[in-house]
Write a structure and sequence with these properties.
The chain is of the alpha/beta class. It has ten helices and 17 strands. Strands 1, 10, 11, 12, 13, 14, 15, 16 and 17 form a nine-stranded mixed beta sheet that branches. Strand 6, helix 6 and strand 7 form a beta-alpha-beta unit. Helix 4 crosses helix 5 and helix 6 packs across helix 7. It is elongated and about 70 Å long.
């Protein structure tokens, strides 16, 4: 590890080569505790999506704050997070035989639930569970407006529920939805969330008339997290980004810059071109994700130079437009950047630097690169 160097980003001397992802542990705990208080107040369970932090340690912090189980996208993540908690939701279709087989094996070690939206996936999971000698819990995925996965009508959701009930190695636990299409300011979400509630209520009523109970109704997202009480059907919510936040959640009005717990720390490596400086964090660090609410804002927010704009990224170069800066960054100086989309940035790191007051340590990204 290199010798300590001066780090103007955050006012600390750190012995880490740039670029790296720095996580403020105090902000992480504050974000976790804030959501936990809201959920307690509204009698909701939190099943946080670990796709953002990909860390067993952060998952443990969420569980200590009252989270009921964990959410993952892929089976590989589930295999790791099951070491932290024995209640895991796979919020991604497991339709292919290989994924179904791994899910069934995982279900022997923990209480695994999987969201499904096809008869094909039900058959694949049932066959895999039979071979593994396990039982898999099923949540039927209902499309409430995102139009990505999920069946579009209560009637089709009922068909899937009946199919699960006929299987021998699956257990019907309830409904699943993702209101990811709702990206309006929180104060303007009531109408859209009422439509989500109406569709869930119609589905639950149809199930009830068929003698089917949904013990779990799982939904939520970071943009809608603090408005989840407007969907009374929910029993649990699954926000992920809230734990770190990013410029998407800032520009969307769902948090402040002070709530952003993860910054990319980079070094200015060139000022040879007029009107710009170059940092050592490019698309392999910050990703090419635009800001959803402000596409012209660039590829992140430079904390120390708010007038600067991360104007262009190539693989290893980040170009900062500093033409509006009253003072300019100097070569060799470190700057910290809040990314537009934190989730893929975390996945690009093997480790992050966690700062907790005066203590600094490396934190492994436990499920980094687990895409299957």
């Amino acid at each position: 590890m290199p010798a300590a160097v001066s780090d103007s980003a955050g006012g600390m001397s750190l012995s880490f080569s740039t670029p790296f992802l720095r996580v403020d542990a105090q902000r992480v705990r504050r974000n976790i505790e804030s959501l936990a208080r809201y959920a307690d107040e509204h009698r909701l369970h939190v099943r946080p999506h670990t796709k953002t932090h990909k860390s067993k340690l952060i998952a443990e912090l969420q569980l200590r704050a009252g989270a009921r189980g964990l959410t993952v996208a892929k089976v590989g993540e589930g295999e790791v997070m099951a070491e932290v908690d024995g209640d895991v939701l796979l919020a991604y279709p497991a339709a292919d035989a290989a994924r179904a087989r791994r899910a069934a094996e995982l279900a022997r070690k923990c209480n695994l639930r999987v969201a499904v939206d096809t008869h094909f996936a039900i058959d694949a999971l049932d066959a895999a569970a039979r071979s593994a000698g396990s039982t898999i819990g099923i949540l039927v995925d209902l499309d409430v407006g995102m139009h990505r996965t999920g069946v579009p009508t209560p009637e089709l959701a009922l068909e899937l529920a009946r199919s699960v009930l006929k299987s021998r190695h699956l257990r019907l636990d309830g409904l699943f939805c993702y209101p990811g299409h709702i990206r309006t300011p929180a104060r303007e979400q009531a109408e859209a969330l009422a439509a989500v509630q109406a569709l869930l209520a119609a589905t639950l009523d149809l199930w009830k008339r068929d003698g089917i109970e949904a013990r779990i109704v799982s939904g939520g997202s970071t943009p809608t997290a603090l408005q989840s009480h407007l969907v009374p059907a929910y029993t649990e919510i699954r926000p992920g980004t809230y734990v770190y936040n990013d410029m998407n959640t800032v520009h969307g009005g769902y948090c402040s810059l002070d709530d952003c717990a993860a910054h990319i720390v980079a070094t200015v490596v060139s000022d040879a071109v007029a009107g710009k400086v170059v940092i050592d964090a490019g698309s392999k660090t910050l990703t090419m994700d635009p800001c959803l609410w402000s596409p012209s804002a660039g590829h992140g927010h430079v904390v120390e130079y708010s007038e600067a704009r991360v104007a262009r990224l190539s693989e290893e170069h980040g170009e900062l437009d500093i033409t509006k800066c009253a003072r300019r960054p100097k070569v060799g100086q470190r700057v910290s950047i809040v990314p537009n989309h934190i989730c893929p940035c975390v996945n690009l790191q093997d480790r992050v630097v966690m700062v907790d007051g005066s203590e600094t340590r490396e934190l492994r990204v436990d499920t980094r690169g687990m895409l299957t």
